[in-house]
Structure formats: C-alpha cells, structure tokens
Design a protein that fits this description.
This protein is mainly β. Helix content is 5%, strand content 43%. The strands form 14 sheets. Strands 4, 5, 7, 12, 13, 14, 16 and 17 form an eight-stranded antiparallel β-sheet that branches. The chain has a seven-stranded antiparallel β-sheet with strand order 3-6-15-8-9-10-11, with no helix packed on it. A six-stranded antiparallel β-sheet has the order 30-31-32-39-34-37, with no helix packed on it. Helix 1 (38-50) packs antiparallel against helix 2. It is globular. The model is unreliable at 1-52, 225-260, 409-419, 563-579 and 712-717 (pLDDT under 50).
C-alpha cells in the first residue's frame, strides 16, 4: 500500500487521503435530504431577514461592511443586550479616522454602560455602573492620527480592563488599563454614535473586523451584508413582508431542505467503527468518535467525509467562512482536518485543528472539485480514550457540539412532513388491553407496549399497524430502519406485505436490535409483535420505532412523533408551530435582577440562576401576558431540581393560580389561558440554584430545550387581537406588546373620543407604532396619518387616560380600527 504525503510544521506527515488506497472498512455514506443547492442558497438569503446582524437607524452609508455617514439619525444598534454579569468580555473594533480628529466623536456608546470615543485627539474608553462612569474611565496613551486605520481591543478579564491597539490588525500594543472587578452595567450598544445620539463618528467603521466575545465565545460579529438586514425586525416574530413572501415562494415551489441544526457534516461517515492501523475508532451514538491505541504501519486515518468517488455534493463552498471544531483539543501529532482537491485529486488547501486549539476558522480561496474531513494520527502516537466531536458550521462563531446523527436531517420535504421520525401510526391497530392466547397487551401514553401472561396457543399476536391495501405508510423500493427494544422478556416482531415477511427480528431478549430493509409492495401492510407458545412474560416492556433511511435513532413516542403537519406542498400559513417544544417566550418578562435578597441571573441557555438569601416570597416573571394557547393538555417542568423551596407559579385568565415544586400537568381551555408564569422562591438560601423552565404540549416531559432557541415562532407577525399580545422584542430585550382597539360607533367631526381606558400611558414606557383606519361618511377609508389641506386631519393619542381618537376630517366617521404597539414600564 502506498502513501502520499505533504509537509507539516508539526512534525507529522499528513497523508493525501486516496479512496483507492486508504484503509477503510465499509462504504457507508448515504445521500441525505440535506442536499446543497439552490434551496440552501435561498434559505441563507432568508436568514438576512430573520436574523439581522444590526438594526439600521436612518440611512448611514453601507458598502461591503464599511459603515460611514453617521449622524444623530444615522447609526447602527446591536440587536441584543450587552449582559456582562459574571462574564469576561472582549470588544474588537476596526475604524478609520478622517481628516479631523480634534472634535469629540463616538465610535460606539451606550448610556452609562460602555463607550469608546475620540476627545481632544486622544482615544478614551469608559465603563459605567448604570448611573455614572465610575467603573472605568481610561484616557489612553494613543494620540489618534488623521486618515489612519486602527484596530482596538478592549478586554475585561473579571480583574481589570486592558486596552490595546494595532495598525495592521496583528501586532497589538497596550495603551491603557484599569484594575477593577466590577463589570459594566447592562445597556443597549449603538455603533457610530454616543449617548442619546450625541457626537457621531466622522470616519469609517469596518464591521468585517468588529466583534464581541463573552467568556471567549463570539456573541456578535459584524458582516459585509448588514445593509440587507431589515430595518424593523430583530427576531423571527417580526419577519418583514419581503421575508414572508420569500419563505412562501420557497415552501410552495421547492420545499425547505435546510439542516435542522448547525453541524454540516453528513452522517453516516465514510468510515464506520473499525480498527484502522492500530487505532480502534468507535463511532458513538451522538456521532462523536472514540480513539484508542497506537498508530502503526503509517498514519492512521478515520474519514468522516470524502466525495472523490461518491459523487456527493461538497459540504463547503469557496469564499464562505466556516468553523471546524471539536470540544476536545487534539494531542500533538493528532489532527482533525479538512482539505480541498482539484480535478486530479491533488491537495489545494488544508485547515487543521491541532494540539494548541480546538477550533479553526476556514475560508477556501481556491476553486476546488472535492473535499475531505478526517482524523489523522501520526505513526507511533498513542491515544487513550480521546474523543473527537466533529463539528463543521458556517460562520466564525463556535457553538456547542450538535450530534451529526441529528443535526443534518432535513426539516421539510415536498413529500411528507412529520413532527418526528417514528412512522408507526397511533393509536395502534389493536387497542390497549387486547388479549390473545393468554398474553395481555397494555399501551402506555408514550406508545410503549407492556405484555403480561403466558402464551397458551401456537402464537400470540399484537398488531401495531394493519391495512388491507398495498398503499400504506411504507413505500415500494424505499429503505427503512426498524428498531426493536425489549425489557423483561422474549418477543418477536415482523413486517409483512401480504405475500411474505419483508423484515423481522426474532427472539429479542432484553436488548435493542435494529434492522435496515428495502420494502417491497404486496397486497397489504402489517407491523406486528408476536410471542411463541409457552413463553411467559412479566411486565415486559416493548418499544418499536420505524423510520425512513438507514440510521437508527433513539426512541420517539408514537403518540407524538407521527402527527403529520403537512402533505405534498408546504405553505407558510400552515407553519405556526414553534421550532421546538419549549413554549415559554423569550426574552422573559423580567430581565436579570435582584429581588428580596436573591440575584436572578438569566443564563445564555435560558436557565435562571438564583443566588442569595431570600427574605420574603417574591415572583420572577417569565410570562406576564396571555400565551396564545389552544385548549389541551400541557406540561410545565424544570422547578424540581434539587431545591424544592423554589416553586413554580401559574396564573390563569380567570384569576385562579397554582403553586408547585414538581412537574405539573395543566389542562387549558380556550376561555382560560395562562396569563402568568413565574418562579416563586420561598424564604431560604439559594446557592447557585438553577431553574430550567420548560412548558410543552402534551403530558410527556422531554429534556430541557433552551427558551433562547426553542420558542422562536416561524410565522406570527399578523396576529391581531383585542387582548394584548407579545409580538416582538424591543432594543434592550423588553417585549413589544400589540393591542387592537375597535370602535364601530359614529364619531362626529370635531370630537375626541376615548376608545380604551385600560391602556394608559402610566403603564407604557414607549409607543413604537400606531396604525389603523376609519370609515368616513363619504364612503372613504382613511388611514393614519392623514391630512387633506392642513385643517382636515385625524389622529390617535395615548395619554394618562388611555387611547383617544380625534376627528377633524369635516365628516363623521365609524369603524375605527387602531393597532398600537408599545413597551411597558418595568
């Protein structure tokens, strides 16, 4: 066997992996539904509408990430709260001055939070405590020069501030410091402007080189396409009309075939679990790979992806930024790498995760035809239970590992769309309590079957699925995987097409077995369990999962998994469910704060940490407005670990409330939805206790899903109701409420009429927008605002008594509809 090598600065030769020569056991790469093509391009285009990287105020000049033309009306705002509590942070900003550096000008600023500006030709940094700038006030040693580019780095490591600068983006020099353990307060950061739109920057800010880190993780970074971001939306709930139309166009014509998650590496891998050149590579259930042994006979390679013979599409594209990462660092001469090749299969470029880091930024600049992702362990190197968590994602931010076995499964298909993977319909063909030849079968609420008794006949059968037709859930020629788990017994399963058993697992005794098969169409379709004569079962628990494809995943309850959301084509109007299971809106009604002696801190995953001595019962509100729930059964969990004195609190619209310290089932009726969900700590000490609130449909409790990701509504923009609803998030994280006020009575000319006395200005801190219309007695609809000739007008007012309508149109009006969006006072 020959090996081809290229040089390496680390002292280990990395082979050019040749599919004809490389040790590999079984070709297992399958084409998945996550195809790279025009649909993915369009989905990425849509993300500009869904996740704007900055809010654009006014019309600053934007060109390839270079922002200029700042004024009191033209600047950028970051679409998140800069929360630094208990965190170190790093701010990197790149800017170019113009010819005048003598006047005061702000590069970025937030009221008594953080600010970087030029004053009297010097660079100044400030950090505040919410009321003044006492945390840090540093006039640096840098005398700013005209028409010069600077790269400035501000680091707070929980012990002190340090400020350094560079003129080339690589070589930095310290220019100021401040010893303090106090982080700045939380505030909204604006770019190119100061407090209250004071002192706009008169140069250029390069967003491509500007980013923020919290705890060494990039939480915000500039981008060259910020100019395409919507000027209105800050999250998915506020997709603008262009975004809605684009989603609808794709959904109705091509289907959305993007990934469920961030991890782009396809599964199953090129190599399966095997002993390769002395290294025992074991693929775990989550797609991570255990490495054990000593490499011998050359470099030991494990290949995740190689498309030089498979014809599969590349996972990456030229000139796009990616990050390759593993949770664990690689030891010396162990490399986790990605390469590109030309048409002759010669190596063009390579990026490697090495022993001094656990991630590497990637941008391939040369045209390539093929690519590979692999582990290379140098000859003679010994590894002991080294685990590689392979993660390839678009962009420069490093996220936590997402299992490859789940992350790259397509969300939507033009053929079928189910909530989960388990295809077996529920309820089953035979109902709970069915008995046959001495065996009684009981069905649990998650779809498991429990069998008890002794088989007195030849064979006892329990049919899960039965149709007297060739057309059922299984399609001719398709591959499926059957997973069959048995506890406390000996049970068999079969799939029959009416002519023969096309798949079966016999004598499964206290184990989980799987089989992959290709279905052949027959006269009917049957999926059934059977117990042979004389077999005795006591509390025998059985789980069955049937899924499309060749990958066996963990069991998903048939009671939930097989609910069909859409058939054939998908319309955006049909997708009003959340991305995940956790229904609690984010951000919460309360931000991080101290109450009754307890510090409540909202973590990045939506958990709430409690620290301190609680002096009296209080309420930390997660939800403080009506949730748009349908009638049904729900589960609220996350308050039972491990300190039961921190109880959950739920209040219904009719005024009733409940307290609980364990997972609770809630039955919701359409006329009695939940209006409040809160954490209610009792008197006592809380030492870093974390609550992970989870509110989901059904009566099964699933693992916690972060509210920061799970509850993003895909389509909820055009919901109008006379009850106030949360429809978005304002700058700084506060919820935006919407309420529709309707008056059908006649309002004469020259009168002012109160339309709503409940919504008063003393509960509203800011009115964001007022829209609506009235119907005039002349047969014309008039929208807000409206002016005919200077003396004819009408308008809506919000003052201390509520919402008013003023008519000066010289005609009477009726059918008044007013939509008001607002932020409340804390």
């Amino acid at each position: 066997m020959r090996d081809m090598y290229m040089g390496s600065e680390m002292g280990v030769s990395l082979p050019i992996i040749d599919s004809a020569d490389t040790d590999r056991n079984v070709w297992s790469a399958q084409k998945t539904k996550n195809e790279i093509g025009i649909v993915d391009d369009k989905v990425k285009e849509l993300q500009l509408y869904k996740f704007p990287n900055a809010i654009i105020y006014g019309q600053p000049t934007i060109n390839n990430g270079q922002i200029s033309g700042f004024s009191s009306a033209n600047y950028l705002g970051l679409p998140f709260v800069f929360d630094t509590k208990d965190r170190g942070f790093e701010i990197n900003v790149a800017f170019t001055t113009n010819s005048d550096v003598t006047i005061a000008q702000n590069i970025f600023g937030s009221k008594f939070c953080i600010a970087l500006y030029i004053q009297n030709g010097q660079l100044v940094f400030r950090a505040g405590n919410g009321s003044d700038w006492s945390v840090a006030d540093i006039t640096t040693t840098l005398s700013v020069q005209a028409n010069t580019t600077y790269y400035v780095k501000i680091v707070f490591n929980k012990l002190n501030y340090t400020i350094s600068y560079s003129t080339n983006g690589e070589d930095y020099e310290s220019i100021g410091s401040k010893v303090t353990t106090i982080p700045p307060t939380v505030g909204q950061v604006n770019i190119g402007i100061g407090n209250n739109q004071h002192n706009p920057f008169n140069g250029i800010i390069n967003l491509n080189k500007t980013f923020i880190k919290l705890n060494n993780t990039v939480v915000w970074e500039g981008m060259d396409d910020v100019g395409l971001a919507t000027r209105l939306a800050t999250d998915l709930e506020n997709i603008d009309e262009v975004g809605i139309d684009r989603i609808r166009e794709i959904a109705e014509t091509e289907g959305l075939k993007s990934s469920q998650g961030r991890n782009l590496i396809t599964y199953p891998y090129w190599n399966q679990s095997a002993l390769l050149r002395g290294i025992d590579y074991t693929v775990n259930d989550d797609g991570s790979v255990n490495c054990n042994g000593t490499a011998s006979g050359g470099v030991a390679n494990f290949v995740f992806f190689d498309n030089r013979t498979s014809g599969e599409p590349n996972l990456i594209k030229k000139d796009i930024e990616y990050t390759l990462s593993s949770t664990n660092q690689c030891p010396t001469r162990v490399n986790f790498a990605i390469r590109t090749y030309d048409s002759s299969k010669a190596v063009l470029e390579q990026f490697t995760v090495t022993n001094d880091l656990n991630n590497v930024k990637i941008k391939f600049t040369k045209d390539f035809v093929y690519s590979t992702i692999y582990i290379a362990i140098g000859e003679g190197v010994t590894v002991d239970n080294l685990v590689i968590y392979p993660m390839l994602e678009e962009g420069s931010s490093v996220h936590s590992y997402e299992p490859t076995v789940e992350s790259n499964v397509g969300i939507l298909s033009q053929e079928k769309l189910t909530q989960g993977r388990n295809l077996i319909p529920y309820p089953y063909y035979r109902s709970s309590g069915y008995s046959h030849y001495g065996i009684t079968y009981t069905v649990n609420n998650d779809g498991r079957v429990v069998a008890n008794g002794t088989c007195t006949g030849a064979t006892s059968y329990f049919a899960l699925y039965y149709v007297e037709s060739a057309d059922g859930i299984l399609e001719n020629g398709k591959q499926y995987t059957l997973s069959f788990e048995v506890e406390n017994g000996d049970v068999n399963i079969y799939i029959n097409n009416g002519n023969k058993d096309v798949s079966f697992i016999k004598h499964n005794i206290n184990s989980r077995k799987t089989v992959t098969f290709t279905f052949e169409k027959g006269t009917k379709q049957v999926i059934g369990l059977y117990v042979t004569t004389g077999t005795t079962l006591t509390d025998c628990k059985i789980k069955v999962q049937l899924e499309e494809g060749t990958i066996a995943h963990a069991y998903e309850p048939t009671t939930e998994s097989n609910v069909t959301l859409a058939n054939t084509k998908v319309s955006i109007d049909d997708i009003k469910t959340s991305q995940g299971r956790n229904l609690i809106p984010y951000p919460y009604a309360y931000t991080s704060r101290k109450m009754a002696g307890v510090d409540f801190t909202i973590l990045t995953d939506g958990g709430i940490k409690m620290q301190g001595d609680c002096t009296s019962s209080s309420y930390f509100y997660l939800v403080n407005s009506e949730l748009p729930l349908k009638s049904g059964t729900y589960k609220l969990s996350g308050f039972n670990q491990p300190q039961s004195t921190a109880k959950g609190y739920v209040k219904f619209k009719d005024g009733t409330n409940r307290y609980f310290s364990d997972s609770t089932t809630l039955n919701i009726t359409e006329d009695n939805p939940i209006v409040q969900i809160a954490i209610r700590p009792e008197v006592g000490t809380y030492d870093g206790y974390v609550v992970y609130p989870m509110f989901e449909v059904g009566n099964i409790i699933h693992a916690y899903e972060p509210t920061t990701e799970s509850n993003v509504t895909l389509a909820n923009r055009d919901t109008y109701t006379s009850d106030e609803k949360i429809v978005g998030t304002w700058i700084g994280g506060k919820p935006i409420y919407r309420k529709t006020v309707i008056n059908n009575g006649t309002i004469e000319n020259g009168t002012t009429t109160i339309l709503d006395s409940v919504l008063k200005s003393n509960v509203v801190s800011r009115v964001i927008s007022i829209t609506g219309s009235v119907y005039g007695s002349n047969g014309t609809f008039y929208a807000f605002p409206h002016t005919s000739n200077g003396s004819e007008f009408h308008r809506c007012l919000v003052n201390s008594s509520g919402v008013y309508y003023q008519n000066n149109l010289n005609i009477s009006v009726s059918r008044v509809v007013i939509n008001i969006e607002y932020v409340k006072i804390d």
